[in-house]
Amino acid sequence: MTGGAETIAASFERQRGWCEQMGSALYAQLLAFARDDIEEGGAVAAVVDAFPGDPVKAALPLRLMGGLHRLVLMGVAPNLARHYPSVGGMPEVDTMRADLLGTVHEHRGYLRDSLSVAPQTNEVGRAAALLLALGTAASQFKGGIRLLEIGAAAGLNLHLDRYRYEFGSWSWGSASSPVRIEAEWRGDPPSITEKLRIEGRRGCDVAPIDARDESSRLRVLSFVWADQVERFGRTEAALELAAREPVDIDRADAADWLATQLDLSHSGTMTVIQQSVMWQYVPEETQRRIERTIERAGGAASANAPLARSWFDVPKVEAWNHGGPEIALTMWPGGERRTLGWGQAHGAWIESIS
Ligand SMILES: C[S@@+](CC[C@H](N)C(=O)[O-])C[C@H]1O[C@@H](n2cnc3c(N)ncnc32)[C@H](O)[C@@H]1O
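Above: the input record for the complex with S-adenosylmethionine. Below: its predicted structure, written as tokens.
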């Protein structure tokens, strides 16, 4: 075994542990088989050995898992598909190793190419946290809303008012929505107006995903862990909804894009900038430019044309102690920032504070 293979095997072991901790028994098992095979110089080793980047930083194991999931979703890997709940399968440990290695060997060319595709998801469960912030902002303004999102991926969370939310203690949204988000709600239910008047939606991303394009949809779905069927189902439903109701997601860096979007001259419209789990990917200098652009626009906001920033992202305070990103809302005029609560990173629970 080469030094490179040792590092690669270690990255698979590390990812196996994370998948186990984060509730994907299937991926933990597949990654364990893959790790052993890499150590033995087998079929998986032949695919991943020449990977040029840092296997941990580049999330090499997830690149391979994404490629495998795409083969399953395309219907060309029936033996492996038998273990994948996303296509109706049921994991069977006794036959999984042989099915994995057989698939990897048969599709080695495709899988080698798929290692160049960086994992990218668009987590619809986060809409529950963004709804809390947007709903709180909307309760303070009677007019329409122009919703902007930075780091929007496929823009699925720009459709947050078109989803149905079931929180146990309260629910919100059309009962006939094809996208249902079930989450645990901790704390008092907020008072969110029955209908949010969203009059415009637009997003940006450095690598936007077009929900109308089949291969892009396949790519997003392939990075949802295949045994997390609820997440898979709602991502699929949200992609279909987004394909029917297209929203522009501009290919742009968030700082450059925001500088062109914050025209607050429309009286009767509140501009809301939302973001979820993207801050950690943005260089500090860009973060500072984003902050400055928003502050400057906030200075021009008025009671008739206010500005709001809806945030479900890495915390400014030590909110990881709360088990997930912070939900915060800043509103201009004034620029007062309020922590509204915290949420699990995929939106499994929301804790609101009054
Ligand atoms: C973890 S994903 C989150 C996507 C989406 N906000 C969600 O919560 O599902 C982070 C996204 O931020 C985008 N991104 C990273 N840096 C960016 C930047 N400087 N400007 C705009 N988008 C960026 C990535 O391409 C990716 O789609």
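Notes for the reader.
The longest strand covers residues 198-205.
The chain has a mean pLDDT of 94.
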